[in-house]
Amino acid sequence: MSQSQFGWNDVYQAAGEDQAAKVLVNIKKRKERAKRKRALDEDKEDKEATKGTSPRAEAWENFKSTNPVMQRLSPLHAAYEESECRNHASAMTIEDMRKIMAWSYKQCPDELISLIYSQVQSGLPLDMDEVISAQKHLVIRAFATTGFTIWTRNFELTKIRRKDVVWNCQGLPPYNIPYDLVSLLNRKGWQRKGETDGALEGHEYEVYPQHQTPEICMFTHLRAWVKFFEEVLLRRPLEPDEFIFARVGANSVVYPSDELSYDSVMKMLTWMCKDVGLTARYTTHCFRRGGARYRFMFTPLGQRWSLATIRWWGAWAEGESVDTLIRYLLDELTRYEKNHRDALCPIPREGDKTFNGDHILTAPVTAAETRELKMSFDRELTRLSGKVEEVLDKLTLTPPVSSSSSPPPSQFSQLSISTPIPSLPSPLLSPPPAQPLQRTPSHEASHEPLSGSYTTSSATHNVYARRITTAPTGTPQQQKKNAPIPGIGIPDLPRGLEAWRAAVKQWEDPAASIGGKALKDWPEEWYTGPMRTITGVKRNIRKVIATEFYRLHGDDRVFLEEYPEANRGAKPLFDAIQRKREGRGEITGRASKNGRPEVRASASR
Questions:
Q1: How far apart are CA 101 and CA 454, in angstroms?
Q2: What is the reported pTM?
Q3: Which residue has the higher pLDDT, 146 or 447?
Q4: CA distances in angstroms from 46 to 41, 43, 185, 330, listed in the order given
Q5: Which of 125, 522, 551, 574 is most buried, most CB within 10 Å of its CB?
Q6: How far is 118 from 467, CA to CA, in rounded Å?
Q7: What angle do CA 578, 582, 586 make, to 5 degrees?
Q8: For residue 88, which of 315, 290, 309 has the smallest C-alpha distance?
Q9: What are the tens digits of pLDDT across the range 366-396?
Q10: Which of 153, 198, 161 is nearest to 183 (CA)?
Q11: Of 483, 582, 519, 373, nearest to 129 (Cα)?
Q12: CA–CA dist 461, 402 (Å, integer)
């Protein structure tokens, strides 16, 4: 609609001061409700696009075509229907997943992760930028591969808790292949299905290693993220009810009791797609649609899933409309078969002749295909030779490292064994053989490598190897910002009326803060020094509010009469308390370069 509408800003400006807080709360609730509605618009899988052909429907169509008023309204109705049509998000493809993993391992190689683990074991301070980079990349790898493997919507995946994953399960004999068991209790629509004999049908998934496709190996990447989460960020095991994909603050302070928000997931996807160079529109269904289409259409011959398997794995009910599966699978297949954009390709796909063009894969090799294969090998060898020359040039320019600064051989050997460089197979070369799985008694000791060809230069490897055994040196200006003390934090205060009560509770209740101690009992190193900007400011706000509340004998009525600003939030209340403390002479306010306010006022007379 082209006309401007009366918005919430006008409502807020029209409200008085006494109603402003309530209006703000109402605006927030309605905006969150609208955001959830937009997210759930993509989940209307049960909707059937049917058009009636009854006599009443025919009469209605005749009326619309003959009535002058309806003729004038017809363009507006068509525009409304067009605006309300579903805007399908793009499906994440296997090629996109390869690009994401290649970019992620280039930005955050395994040597950096090994360096962080070594610093944790040695008790050395961690660099905040390195910890934040590792946390971001490990999260995106685990989140993307998990969503692509078990076909979750993004808002379902954020609700997985530690108790929903069982590590190191054993497969059936005689093979006894290890797998991880994942339970999804928050599938859309499952709450309406009810329970049968105490368990929901089809909510458990056996996740096995996928050595041939490491870019979608949930078995590897989910373990790597949980290991980093527990050993580096928390320094303790996750509790059963804590979230695997938890909220992480800007300073890498983790809140394991809070799930990752929808906005944070979308920001993570936007950041990832921008850096990787993906231009498609990816939203809440991108991994679910991509995983389903990959298993139905694009896996190698003999590995594609049946519709029965697709229906079970995607948690579509037996009586659900087939329109859902058509939307996910058959529509995409039809577009694929009718697409002839590769008509000029020397080896065309010919998807319209057989299912998904499978006859090309099963036909004998032709002379044209042999020539194209030879040319592809030549291109790949040229690219690899350029990479080798680049690495050799770097090694030639790198100054030799003295024996005094080199780590002992045992540390080099330990590094090379525990952190092999993960890689992806080249699309032009045959994949390497699957390597045997390293069995470990628990997931904490298992950082599964990926098989393939992710590579980092040996110079980079040596840089991280030297840093593992070298203590930080240099002037304070050269020192990087240390990561916060793990396992402690202060939750954010709610907005509005309950903020001051939450501040008092965090000050005196050990369960209200992160660290197992009330804020009043925190040791000094938890909020001073490097932690001053992370927890010191937040703790001081709680301290000032709680101390003033105790000064008024802990009486809610007296406190609210003395400080009506408490109804507006923690920051206005804190400022009001500080002004009264300054008036009582308990503190001295900050003076500007022109002096204190009373000095400036006397000087102007």
A1: 9
A2: 0.61
A3: 146
A4: 11, 8, 20, 16
A5: 574
A6: 10
A7: 100
A8: 290
A9: 777 787 778 888 888 888 888 888 888 877 7
A10: 161
A11: 483
A12: 17
Residues 528, 530, 535, 536: what is their CA dihedral angle, to the nearest 10 degrees?
40
CA–CA separation, 136 and 248 (whole Å): 10
* Complete DSSP assignment for 125-172: PPBHHHHHHHHHHHHHHHHHHHHHHHT--HHHHTT-BGGGEEEEEE-S
Contact (Cβ atoms closer than 8 angstroms) between residue 168 and residue 143? no
* CA distances (Å), origin 35, targets 3, 186, 261: 23, 19, 12
* Short-list 269, 231, 236, 265, CA closest to 248: 265
Helix, strand or coil, per DSSP, at residue 378:
helix
Q: Check: CB of residue 391 under 8 Å from CB of residue 458.
A: yes
pLDDT tens figures, 147-191: 999 999 888 899 999 999 999 998 888 788 899 999 987 666 554
Phi, psi of 121 (to 5 degrees): -65, -30
The reported pLDDT for the residue numbered 505 is 92
Query: Quick one: which H or E segment has residue 180?
Result: strand 178-183
Contact between residue 262 and residue 34 where contact means Cβ atoms under 8 Å apart:
no
Mind listing the pLDDT tens digit for each residue in 99-129?
A: 999 999 999 999 999 999 999 999 888 888 8
CB 116 within 8 A of CB 126: yes
